[in-house]
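Figure 2 data, in text form.
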Amino acid sequence: MPDPIIFYAEFVSPNTYLAIRDLSRVAEKHGREIEWRAFSLMQVWDAIDYHPLGKPREKARYIRRDFQRCAVIEGQELTMPDTFPLDAEGARLGFWRLAAQDRPLANAFASEVFNAYWGRGETITEPGVLKACAEAVGADPAEIAAAADDPQARAAMVEAGEQAVADGVFGSPHMIVAGEPFWGHDRVEHLDWWLEHASEWRTAMAQKAGQPYGRASCPAASPAARSRIF
């Protein structure tokens, strides 16, 4: 089996929500599995001593406008939640409890949580919302409710954050395939290109080791190639 696309996903990240649709298309196109890892971005930021949220205010205002504009351009539904940001610990714990039993089901649950929060503007800290998300994908809502007291789910959640730090994650979405990192929903297109040209990329980078950055000797992605998935 080829290496999966590791997908670090923070539920309160709108850009992660915007990445899901096209990342799924890229994964299917290249025959790759997506290995979802629901994690706490605050846990990572605390570990690396990085606290950019809302600073400066001008950037925060721009980012909010930008992700709403991105949704319109990309033809995706996006509703600004009444409560933003929030700590989606319950959703993360539910994900990891399901993941221990059924990975595809856990992935579907995570995707539906994103739909609830960013697609419909629902408050995903409310038990009723998580219950509805579980029911929508065929998961047992009782499993999600039980996750809060599941030490294995909590340990897996914490470990995901620690592994994110070890993997150099600093934002969401953060995708890694065969050791190559991609950050941001606008880098899904680059990930698609890389999966097509990984060997040329590695050769070009090896040849350019120690040289100034510049255009590598590997194929550029044409507009036609970019349009294949978007």
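Caption note: The domain at 5-196 is CATH 3.40.30.10 (Glutaredoxin).
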